[in-house]
Automatic annotation (TrEMBL):
Record-linked PROSITE patterns: UDPGT
Family annotation (InterPro entries): UDP_glucos_trans (IPR002213), UDP_glycos_trans_CS (IPR035595)
PANTHER family linked: GLYCOSYLTRANSFERASE, SCOPOLETIN GLUCOSYLTRANSFERASE-LIKE
Xref: Pfam families: UDPGT
Keyword Iron: no
An example Gene Ontology molecular-function term: UDP-glucosyltransferase activity
Enzyme class: transferase
Name used for this protein in its record: Glycosyltransferase
Species name: Papaver nudicaule
EC identifiers of the protein: 2.4.1.-
């Protein structure tokens, strides 16, 4: 869908430099496609191995006539002691690799500045972990916009924790599940000490923030972030809705380990709204379970119990490593979604209009859980409390089967008034999400505002 640039004849050029992790690269590619569809020249900066998956998506847009490109810079794995081939956080195989990886990303500053000097884009959108990107862009008079990959709610929580430090009032800091109320937010939100220590502060020196969300989803927090906290930001999501055909949905991100036609045929064989669950055999519902393969698991099955696949044959579908998630969630047979609470996944579930069960593991995922269960109320907590920065088969604290089955039944099979209202809210949110990115919608309008503001900036 090509939208002409009607403001003037100058074509703006945007550089997009995502954090080297699938959860950041996927939405950033969608954002690049959004800008290209509005008449801008979009250039995605990434490393050679990551460029393979990125180019797979952008090539379809290039063939349709959009001005979108991929520019590579070398990843300094050897300089920091990483094995060759480790160019993404998703490829890290041990906790010891994390500091090395972030040292490597710091070394990307110099080649990135070379590109800026050579090509002089009009503005830069860079991931939150590239803390030097604002300084780099400023050397050439280029505004840098930060992309956190989170919602307004998360940004408001992080800034409020930084300003007020409410967790310091708790006397017994050794009790990790001690909770406190975050002050000055539109809603009463309780969190734990453990989360407060890990919520990151927003970048304060950037030109502004780009938010993968839509106004109708969190109007109070969009206003709070902009008006009360005084931050400049634009909501342009859900960016996943840029993927409108089966190929775009199926090939988004990494190459799936399962053929999309097989998945669609399996889903088509189920009744509409079949109650999706994740590995919940005792719930009695049909489900798709996406299982990450952990290379150092002792047994071949990893998380899967022995004989599990044979037992659930016909009722459950196991997909290993990477699944066409948007394709699955958008199918009419899907009526619920258990999620790890990454914002991309949660927003994709919201856009699909399905209620959610939340199972966070670390970082901002616990914050996102609060948003979907306490603010928009389209999900139910599974009750996970432990923070697991490194996930493997031995460190996962499994909940009791009875608890999982109970929550699944409550979300997907509950006939009570509360369950019905939750499903209705989820469906309404899904409809609002789709309208927000259409011409005349709130996210469409905010993207236009950003483009026009950058045009004015370049004329200074």
């Amino acid at each position: 869908m090509g939208y002409p640039d009607t403001t003037d004849n100058k074509q703006l050029h945007v550089y997009l430099f995502p954090v080297l992790a699938q959860g950041h690269m996927i939405p950033m590619v969608d954002i690049a496609r959004l800008f290209a569809a509005r008449g801008l020249k979009s250039t995605i900066i990434c490393t050679p191995l990551n460029a393979i998956s990125v180019s797979k998506t952008t090539e379809r847009d290039r063939l349709s006539g959009l001005d979108i490109n991929v520019q590579t810079i070398p990843f300094p794995a050897a300089e920091v002691g990483l094995p060759q081939g480790i160019e993404s956080l998703d490829k890290i195989t041990s906790p010891e690799m994390f500091p090395k990886f972030f040292r490597a990303t710091a070394l990307l500053q110099q080649p990135f500045e070379q590109l800026l000097e050579e090509h002089r884009p009009d503005f830069v959108i860079a991931g939150m972990f590239f803390t030097w990107a604002t300084e780099s862009a400023a050397k050439f008079g280029i505004p840098r916009i930060v992309f956190h990959g989170q919602c307004f709610f998360y940004l408001c929580v992080g800034e409020t924790l930084h300003l007020y430090k409410p967790y310091e009032a708790i006397s017994n800091v050794s009790v990790q599940d001690s909770s406190f109320v975050i002050p000055s937010l539109p809603d009463k939100i309780e969190m734990t000490i453990d989360l407060a220590e890990k919520v990151r502060e927003s970048e304060l020196t950037s030109y502004g923030a780009l938010v993968n969300s839509f106004y109708e989803l969190e109007p109070a927090y969009a206003k709070h972030y902009r008006s009360i906290l005084g931050r400049k930001a634009w909501h342009i999501g859900p960016v996943s809705l840029q993927n409108t055909n089966t190929s775009d949905k199926a090939q988004r991100g990494n190459t799936s380990t399962i053929d999309e036609h097989y998945v669609l045929n399996w889903l088509n064989s189920k009744e509409t709204k079949f109650k999706l669950a994740m590995g919940l055999d005792s719930s009695g519902y049909s489900f798709i379970w996406v299982v990450r393969q952990i290379k150092h698991d002792d047994d071949e099955g990893g998380f899967l119990p022995k004989g599990f696949e044979e037992r659930i044959e016909g009722r459950g579908l196991i997909i290993r490593d990477w699944a066409p998630q948007v394709l699955i969630l958008d199918h009419q047979a899907v009526d619920g979604y258990m999620t790890h609470c990454g914002w991309n996944s949660m927003l994709e579930g919201i856009s699909a209009g399905v209620p959610m069960i939340t199972w966070p593991k670390f970082g901002e995922q616990f914050c996102n859980e609060k948003f979907v269960t306490q603010v928009i109320k389209t999900g139910i907590e599974l009750g996970v409390k432990e923070f697991n920065m490194w996930l493997d088969a031995k460190s996962v604290s499994l909940l009791k089967n009875e608890k999982i089955a109970s929550v699944v039944t409550q979300v997907m099979g509950g006939d009570g008034e509360e369950a019905k209202e939750m499903r209705q809210r989820a469906e309404e949110m899904g409809e609002m999400a789709k309208k927000s990115v259409e011409e005349g919608g709130s996210s469409y309008a905010d993207l236009t505002t950003l483009i026009e503001e950058i045009k004015v900036y370049t004329k200074r």
